[in-house]
Amino acid sequence: MINSINAELLKKMFLAGAKNLEAKKEWINDLNVFPVPDGDTGTNMTMTIMSAAKEVAAIENADMATLAKSISSGSLRGARGNSGVILSQLLRGFTKVMKENEELDIPLLTSAFEKAVESAYKAVMKPKEGTILTVAKGIYDKAVELNDSGLDDLNSFIEELIKHGDYVLSQTPELLPVLKQAGVVDSGGQGLMEVLRGAYDAYLGKEIDYTIQETPASSKKVEVRETDASGDIKFGYCTEFIILLKKPLNKKQEMDFKDYLESLGDSIVLVADEEIVKVHVHTNDPGMAIQKALTFGELSNMKIDNMRMEHREKLFKQSEKNAQGVYDGAYLDDRAVVKVVSTGDTMPEIVEETIPVEHASADAIEILETEKKDYGFIAVSAGAGLDEIFSSLGVDIVISGGQTMNPSTEDFVNAVNKINAETVYILPNNKNIVMAANQATYLVEDKNVVVIPTKTIPQGITAVINFMPDMSAEENEASMNEEIGNIKTGEITYAVRDTTIDDKEIKEGDFMGIGDAGIIAVSPDMDETLMNMLDEMVDDDSELISIYYGEEIEESKAEEVTELIREKYPKADVDLQFGGQPIYYYIVSVE
Fold first, then answer.
1. 252: which residues sit within 8 A by CB, 6+ positions away?
2. Which end of the chain, N or C, is surrounded by fewer C-beta atoms within 10 Å?
């Protein structure tokens, strides 16, 4: 009997776990509590683990360190939805132990489970019991019990973990009443158990197809809007380094250090763990940042770039392309273009001439597009009309997604990298996307990435509208976070199965009005559901009702409903716009 797991066996176990989850994803989707037609826990977890599985499958002659890196980085970048992010953190924690050992026995597996649970709980701001976290912790607790008992039979160890994991999963409805009302166990916990079951099959040597197929391309696309940018550089030195800590920073030290860096410049990125701190700052005095950092430990990977010089060098390169005084480069200064020409010398001198924007050449516009600006925006949207609304408000990149397709962490990283700005704000616009967006902030090194935790489309629109260009990044973050708390959102969709939620009897095909805190209206009639939902949302202080109608609603029908709403709530302004969103017939906001 095998009593330890080497890299080759672990590779097979991981791929088998991923394949088993993929095979069960639709069943897991159906376990979602809300009976909406877009349950996606199984899909999100599958796409997360498959992102890592593709990397793992490509490894030849696997060793633990290489295997750990592929599992950790692949699942982190591919993480989608809350369940996918938690799964990626479980895997990331597990790899912290496996990368340090050539084989895993019962004591080491127990340590790996401990790190997995620790990482996952840290990733969730407000951990909720009765979820995948509870199942993972239950498995770890059982591992500790078995390890402490002196058990040395690895097969029995894994069998007992799966048996206990199934038991903990069966108890999740007792911890979350909403699960009990719906008559289901937690879908994320079920997904985790399917991974373990598949891994155990590989451990037993069962015949398994380990081929990892390419995930079919989704219909989701990233739309990029080009914007002008200013050539003005407020802080000239891009400064990066890693601190090898003498001892871990406590929370106050970490926040004080970040505040100190903010007093020196902007575009602050500070990521700390127990051993290192990674720092990025744009400043006019890198020495002060370095001196402060040296009080915490030794420095490595130091890099200081003179951004002003790089900017001038870029202009020189442009001027060298033409030695006859023809236009070579430009940058934006208010509403004029500063044109750069050469004098014809071997080492040309830069001569600047200010000209109106309307007279600038196409080359000038191209150069303008490469210049860094102060801020940029990324918004997740679903529907042609909503995409257009965000674009008209100045959003640089719209990621098409939402409940039916959660963007991955890597999608956000790629989008951020396309925006040439000091600070990039991300608007997830869906509660199941916020965690994946947050993970992107740790993977982008050269920009200040700020996630505004918008959970609905109207919150995202409100955030953009309340952005003030003359305020600092911190002030805008605080302002937008405050404003999104002042808006109520409701959505109309239909039920895909019979269930009971929040003491509401729901039949398959019923229309549901879903508010910020859950289902607030149910009826077989769509208009009745909409009006009942608004009754719960509108009060005497409500001033504006915004209605975004979906792709399945005719404009004339939407206008009829809007007139009914105006008649019922004469004190409020009622605004109707085409959203074009799937699944949700109407998205409504009240403020």
1. none
2. N
| DSSP helix/strand/coil, 163 | helix
Longest dimension (CA), the chain: 84
Q: What is the pLDDT of residue 382?
A: 85
Tokens of 178: 């909403």
Task: State both tokens at 473.
Answer: 């990044």
Element (H, E) at 425: strand 421-427
What is the Cα–Cα distance from 304 to 308, expressed in whole angstroms? Answer: 12
Query: Which residues fall within 8 angstroms of residue 434, CB to CB, at 6 or more apart?
Result: 82, 428, 451, 453, 455
Residue 163 buriedness (CB in 10 A; 0-12 / 13-18 / 19+): exposed
Question: So what's the pLDDT on residue 325?
Answer: 36
| Two tokens, residue 485 | 């708390």
User: If you average pLDDT over residues 109-114, what whole number do you get?
Assistant: 96
Question: Could you give the residue ranges of the DSSP H alpha helices within 99-241?
Answer: 106-123, 132-148, 154-170, 172-175, 177-182, 187-203
Q: Residues 161-218: pLDDT tens digits?
A: 999 999 999 999 999 887 887 788 999 999 999 999 999 999 999 988 878 775 443 3
Report which DSSP code applies to 344: S
Residue 46: name the closest of 439, 405, 401 by CA: 405
Q: What Rg value do the Cα atoms of the chain yield, rounded?
A: 27
Q: How sure is the predictor about 274, in pLDDT bands with cuts at 50, 70 and 90? A: confident
> What is the DSSP-derived secondary structure letter of residue 430?
S
In the sheet that 518-523 helps form, which strands lie side by side, from edge to edge?
518-523, 511-515, 488-494, 586-590, 544-549, 573-578
CA distance 463 to 58: 42
Average pLDDT over residues 216-227: 36
Burial class (CB in 10 A: 0-12, 13-18, 19+), 483: middle
Is the distance from CB of 555 to CB of 526 less than 8 angstroms? no
Residue 188 and residue 359: Cα distance in Å, rounded? 58
77 or 556: which leads in pLDDT: 556
Best CA proximity match to 27, nearest among 14, 43, 13, 11? 43
What pLDDT is attached to residue 448? 93
293, 241 in Cβ contact below 8 A? yes
pLDDT digits (tens, 9 = 90+) for 36-66: 655 678 888 999 999 999 999 999 888 999 9
The least confident of 86-95, 99-108, 275-284 is 275-284
**DSSP bridge pairs for 57:** none
- Assigned token pair, 462: 């409100």
Helix (H, G, I), strand (E, B) or coil at 151: coil
Asked whether the predicted pLDDT for residue 430 surpasses 60, the reply is yes
269-278: list long-range contacts, CB under 8 Å, 24+ apart.
Answer: 269/441, 269/444, 269/445, 269/447, 269/448, 269/449, 271/442, 273/248, 274/245, 274/248, 275/244, 275/245, 275/248, 276/242, 276/243, 276/244, 276/245, 277/242, 277/243, 277/245, 277/249, 278/242, 278/445
